[in-house]
């Protein structure tokens, strides 16, 4: 079954719009992007990251990349034991757990400062008026996105995209869309 690219683009735009209501996209380095010689510690210290936010890296894909590593990999600029890697030049990474994340450039840029560590906090509790609305919405038969469950909507959309869209392929197989959002 084939789905036209314009329908997929529209669906993806709706998905981003719905998920952005509760999430922030933190562009690493802001307008300077992911490049050598930038103080990413200072940048990260001026951000507040919450579960469900995105961290995105913008860079020349022929020169740089991004690896999610542990503290040792971060401290030593090594990719051994990396738990994720990206190389599109416009990478959006879901921060789905409250913990410290470590990212480095694996092409040598780490030694020139291309590394960033971010602490992700649990979501703050909703305002008391929103709690009452959420309790009544949970009983609703509305789809997850309409109930405010952006992550649930992302998961359902990624499954739909993998089954009916053009989300399969790539050298590693599986659904590229699901893997990009941490569902694969």
From TrEMBL:
Residues 1-23 form the signal peptide. May act as a carbohydrate transporter. PROSITE patterns: PHYTOCYANIN. GO terms for molecular function: electron transfer activity. InterPro entries: Cupredoxin (IPR008972), Phytocyanin-like (IPR039391), Phytocyanin_dom (IPR003245). Keywords: Disulfide bond, Glycoprotein, Signal. The keyword DNA-binding does not apply. The keyword Signal applies. GO terms for cellular component: plasma membrane. Belongs to the early nodulin-like (ENODL) family. It comes from the Eukaryota. This is Blue copper protein. Residues 24-122 form the Phytocyanin domain.
């Amino acid at each position: 079954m084939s789905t036209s690219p314009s329908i997929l683009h529209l669906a993806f735009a709706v998905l981003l719009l719905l998920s952005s209501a509760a999430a922030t996209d933190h562009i690493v380095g802001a307008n300077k992007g992911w490049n050598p010689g930038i103080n990413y510690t200072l940048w990260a210290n001026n951000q507040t990251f919450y579960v469900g936010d995105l961290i995105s890296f913008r860079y020349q894909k022929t020169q740089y990349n991004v690896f999610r590593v542990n503290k040792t990999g971060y401290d030593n600029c090594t990719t051994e034991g990396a738990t994720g890697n990206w190389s599109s030049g416009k990478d959006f990474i879901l921060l789905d757990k409250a913990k410290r994340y470590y990212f480095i450039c694996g092409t040598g840029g780490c030694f020139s400062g291309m590394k960033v560590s971010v602490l992700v906090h649990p979501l703050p509790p909703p305002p008391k008026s929103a709690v009452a609305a959420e309790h009544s919405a949970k009983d609703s038969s509305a789809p997850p996105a309409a109930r405010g469950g952006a992550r649930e909507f992302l998961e359902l959309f990624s499954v739909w995209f993998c089954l009916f869209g053009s989300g399969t392929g790539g050298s590693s197989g599986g659904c590229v869309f699901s893997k990009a959002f941490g569902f694969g």
